[in-house]
Each structure stands twice: as C-alpha cells, then as structure tokens.
Amino acid sequence: MRLEWLEDILAVLETGSLAAAAERRCVTQPAFSRRIMAIEAHLGVELIERARKPSRPKPALRDQRERIHELAAGLRDLRNDLQRHDRETQNSLVISCQHAITTSVAPTLVRGLGGEPHLNVRLRSGNREECFAQLVTRQADIALLYQTHREPLAGADDYVELIELGPEPLLPVFPTRRLDELAAARTAGGIPVVAYPADVFLGKVTRQEIFPDLELLVHPRAETALTPAIKELVCAGVGVGWLPRSLVAAELRAGVLQDLSGDLPSCTMTIAAMRLRTNRLASVERVWRAVGEFRAGE
Q1: Which pLDDT score is estimated for 86?
Q2: Which of 20, 23, 56, 201 could form a disulfide with 128 if both were Cys (CB 3.0 to 4.6 A apart)?
Q3: Is 141 in contact with 95 (CB distance < 8 Å)?
Q4: Phi then psi for 24, rounded to 5 degrees?
Q5: CATH architecture group of domain 3-72
Q6: Nearest 5°: CA angle at 22, between 19 and 27?
Q7: Which of 184, 101, 95 is nearest to 134 (CA)?
Q8: What is the pTM of this model?
Q9: What pLDDT is attached to residue 105?
C-alpha cells in the first residue's frame, strides 16, 4: 500500500466526506474521487458508502482508523530514515525554505558554501507550516523561515536550535512607469492590491501589521500565496504588492519598481534558520556553522 493512498484514506476518515478530504489534499473533488476508486480497485473492496448523501466512509473502514494511522506513520518513519541514510552516505542535505527565501536568500547562502565542493544541497520550497513540518519530521535538515513580532517562530529549546540571520523588510512596491495610475487610484480613495491568502504567513502579516495602518480602501485585484507570482503580477501593474526586499532588490536598483514605504505602511521580518539538535550528520554540522556566519542582505 502506497503512503499517499493511506494519507488519502486518513483524510476521508478525519474529515468525514470526500469533498472535505479533497480540499485537505489540495486536489479537485473529481480527481480525488478517482484516486479513492483506484484504491478500492486495488484492494478489491468498497471503502465509501456512495448511496448516502453526502457519501461517507464505510463502518469497516472507520473501525480500522487507528491501524491505518499507525501504518502511515510507520511508512513515513521508514521513508525518512532511508532518506536520511542516503543523505549521509551521499554527502547531501535538504534545506526547506519559504517560497520567497528559496528565490532570494537561499542562492546566496548556497553559493557561500563553496568550501564544500562535494556537498549536494537540495532546496525544498513551501509555506512556513510546511517547512517547519518537514524539519520536525526529518524530511529536511535545516529550515529557513520568516518571523515577526506578531508571528514568531517557536524559540530555541532542547529540541530545536535557532539562529537569526538578519532583517528582511516587507516593502510595498509598484512599477515606476505606472505611478500616475496609482496616484489617480489613491486620489479616489483606494489602491489596487495583489494580496496573499489570509491563511498563509505573509497573508497574516499583511492583514495584521500593514492593512490596519492603511488610510485607503484596499481593492484586491489578484491573490496568490507564491511570492514570485506576486512579483510578476506587480511588475505587470496589476496592483501594489508587499514583497521581501531581497526578492525585488534588482528591480529597485534598476528603477523598474518603486519602493512606496515612504507613503504606505511596511514592516520588518526576521530571517531565521532552524535545525533539530539531534541531527548530527557531519554535512549538517558543517553547513550549520556556515549558516551561523551568514548574514542576510550582505
């Protein structure tokens, strides 16, 4: 039984319906239904009561919930142990980064590891919750994450080690050549905005620390959780976007984008590196020392 199949089944059991499980697994309901039917075909048994509306797991499946959970946990542990052993023997490690950090800060950090010519660094990108989960489940050796005063990371303790790498301003930016359009919108009492979803880290930051200080109506024109996509939408003139300075540094220097933090609210985040204290692979130890000497923005 494949791990993703067990996770699909657990999603159905934990949510109670195919529709809610599909949303949790980030797929459309028709696609998720086809996946469940493929599992049923492989097992030779029906798992879902489809005659009832809404459809729900059969009692026999519900009775096996704990056993399925244990199987999935065991397979995850096995996968992680095998991956960890492979990283140790291949002199490689995994760094999990928030999307913006992957495309801005991480390349400079990896380039700084020039003293490790045989080291293979794999970058994984995700939202903050995903990156932290990859760290604690040992799918990643190091995590690079943002934090703010209102959205802090869990502090260093007996289990996790944390290093602050430096500040990262979150700036409002807009195409320089279209500032007249923005001025007209502001005169009318509002501004077009490219927004982050409310349930992602930067969405929480903008809603908690930036939008309350705006003395203008916010008109969302587009929404995405991906900072590189926000950047492209802003460059196209769709609206004002709040982006990490390191991600738009080249465009600001070239005059393509204008920093509006003199007129619109901004905030400063901190970039932090985290690792598990129990991860003592030699490659991780060497890279962690290099991370401690790295300073964002330098």
Answers
A1: 64
A2: 201
A3: yes
A4: -65, -35
A5: Orthogonal Bundle (1.10)
A6: 135
A7: 95
A8: 0.68
A9: 87
